[in-house]
Design brief:
Order of helices and strands of chain A: HHHHHH
Low-confidence stretches of chain A: none
Radius of gyration of chain A: 20 Å
Radius of gyration of chain B: 21 Å
Number of strands of chain A: 0
Low-confidence stretches of chain B: none
Mean pLDDT of chain A: 80
Oligomer: heterodimer
Largest sheet of chain A: none
Number of helices of chain A: 6
Mean pLDDT of chain B: 85
Structural class of chain A: mainly alpha
Strand content of chain A: under 5%
Shape of chain B: elongated
Strand order of the largest sheet of chain B: 1-5-4-2-3
Distance between the termini of chain B: 70 Å
Order of helices and strands of chain B: HHEHEHEHEHEH
Shape of chain A: elongated
């Protein structure tokens, strides 16, 4: 019995800590869910055209002028599925932190790639949401800004998970 | 859950890899693992597993193409859009835009015999439309179809003469 009451006290303390963590985060839960949905669905949507036409996507990767020829096809085959899985996991809540880690990693890679090509003045087709994109510097800037916003969302969600991490441990 | 999450990235990467390469293997849209991305070797492409056009029908030598045209040994087919063809094309080339292939097919059948030498080209090594048309021609039993890999861009870079359609 004393042990049980000890556990009960610990549980109360944890509940208080959880509430404190949620207060610290300062954001209502529904915002967290909506952002998760937006980011996850964006990745699912973005991956679809690439999964359906890997040949066209490979050509877009070639157009970036960064990757060696031997890696282009494996990248074109693999990455759309990683995007898709990460998106699905983020939306469904299966391995959400891992999927966020992948999404943020991919977004960082996109930003570096797009930024690098803008810096050296290389005209390229993004292939972000379709395999028939545009070829202007203006659209590349738009892509860069959009990816920064998505990355900011991803980092925000990651920070939320840090606050909720303790809650997840107790739930299991 | 946290323990599962510890290796979550690894799980997701492995699962994505299995899914990706598995689906690619069985999908009709699947591509081969190593494409042709060397511009000096001809038209760059991912390479579909079901391609019926291969690199061996490509001519990757503008001097040879120039000589063939000079000797009027080939029927030249420009498969770029008509408005781009009008702005400049190889001398004596006919316009057979890929997008309107079915519409121009009758004209093609009247113009070209099944055993004629046909040379198809588009804008350059990054354009695979010439290969697509070549595949369709071979499907229609045209026996001697070849692709000029360098296309109009290389022809211009070589400084060879071009023709324009004034409208």
């Amino acid at each position: 019995m004393p042990a049980a009451s000890g556990n009960g006290r610990k549980w109360d303390m944890r509940q208080k800590k959880m509430k404190a963590d949620q207060l610290k985060s300062g954001w209502p839960n529904w915002i967290f869910w909506i952002l998760r949905l937006i980011l996850g669905l964006t990745f699912i949507w973005a991956s679809w055209a690439k999964m359906v036409a890997p040949g066209e996507f490979a050509k877009i990767i070639y157009g970036y002028g960064v990757f060696p020829g031997i890696l282009i096809n494996p990248i074109a085959i693999f990455f759309p599925y990683l995007e898709f899985l990460a998106g699905v996991c983020l939306v469904t809540g299966i391995l959400p932190r891992s999927s966020l880690f992948i999404i943020n990693g991919l977004l960082t890679a996109f930003i570096v790639l797009i930024g690098f090509n803008l810096f050296r003045g290389h005209v390229f087709d993004c292939g972000c949401f379709s395999v028939s994109g545009t070829h202007t510097a203006a659209s590349a800037w738009f892509l860069l800004i959009r990816d920064f916003f998505l990355l900011a969302t991803g980092i925000f969600l990651c920070a939320q998970f840090k606050f909720k991490r303790r809650a997840m441990i107790y739930r299991d | 859950m946290i323990k599962t999450e510890k290796f979550g990235v690894v799980y997701l990467v492995i699962l994505a890899g299995l899914l990706a390469f598995g689906v690619n293997f069985f999908s009709p849209a699947g591509i081969v693992l190593t494409g042709q991305w060397d511009r000096s070797k001809g038209v760059v492409m991912a390479g579909s597993k079901h391609d019926i056009v291969h690199a061996d029908i490509e001519i990757n030598n503008p001097l040879r193409v120039h000589q063939m045209i000079k000797d009027t040994k080939v029927v030249l087919m420009d498969v770029r859009p008509k408005e781009i063809y009008d702005m400049g094309h190889l001398p004596g080339a006919f316009s057979f835009p890929l997008a309107a292939f079915d519409e121009v097919l009758d004209r093609l059948l009247n113009l070209v015999k099944k055993d004629s030498n046909i040379l198809v080209y588009c804008s350059g090594v990054e354009c695979t439309d010439s290969h697509t048309v070549a595949a369709q021609l071979m499907f229609l039993n045209f026996k001697k179809v070849q692709v000029y890999a360098g296309g109009f861009r290389e022809w211009q870079e070589m400084g060879y003469e071009t023709e324009k359609n004034e409208s």
